[in-house]
Amino acid sequence: MxxxxxxxxxxxxxxxxxxxxxxxxxxxxxxxxxxxMVFFGEPLILKKTKPTIFDMITYAKSKGLTxxxxxxxxxxxxxxxxxxxxxxxxxxxxxxxxAYTPETYxxxxxxxxxxxxxxxxxxxxxxxxEINVKNPEIYVQFVEMDINTHEKExxxxxxxxxxxxxxxxxxxxxxxxxxxxxxxxSNENRWPCYWAMQTMSITDTGKVVKCAVDLDAxxxxxxxxxxxxxxxWNDKLKKFRQLHISKEFDKLPDDCRDCRDWQSARADFYSLxx
Length: 274
Fold this sequence. Notes:
Helix content is 34%, strand content 14%. By secondary structure, it is α/β, with parallel strands linked by helices.
């Protein structure tokens, strides 16, 4: 379901100076903007680097940002990391699991350890209870596919009983790079893409791309190193949004024009506590 291994864009980690520039600009405009602290990859790889992912979260919170979010596969989340997430002030974390049984997990999350993931998330839940804190809010994610759809209800029930929210989302094609037969609508029924209309995705080098599934940065709308976020949002990205609003999809860049992932920019949430 993921083409990360086939990515042609060089992998990397954002510099501290670039990161703080972005956070500072966001804080000046709207402290309540949701900020995802990763653009492809696993943030807990940075749990022992200098600076750490916890330093990054702490800096964002020190600027008054109220909605700092991570997504993780939970394989690297030991107790020290869990404490770091809590103490840094992280607002929410989404754990990608996609399976209820170890057998299905092994097929979808190749190289991961299902038992370790379950234990790591449970440990975070217990630590929050011991320390008596609300955040980070914990979500577990299940990307629904043919191979796992039969486990969806069990997944919802199991994690609901753990006291965390469940996010069920449809499979994406990563801009047409893989087959996603669940995306059945044609451009005749197309609506403006949520990612294009509501989000800004920034690579580790500061390149702003057209959306959250533009893995290889095939369309670059600007560069945060030399431009402000506001400038980029109101330049190429604005023109991009206007084409969506006017439904002039035939004038979009090739990979966006033929993309069907606008159908999958959505999710259903379940919680036994609400």
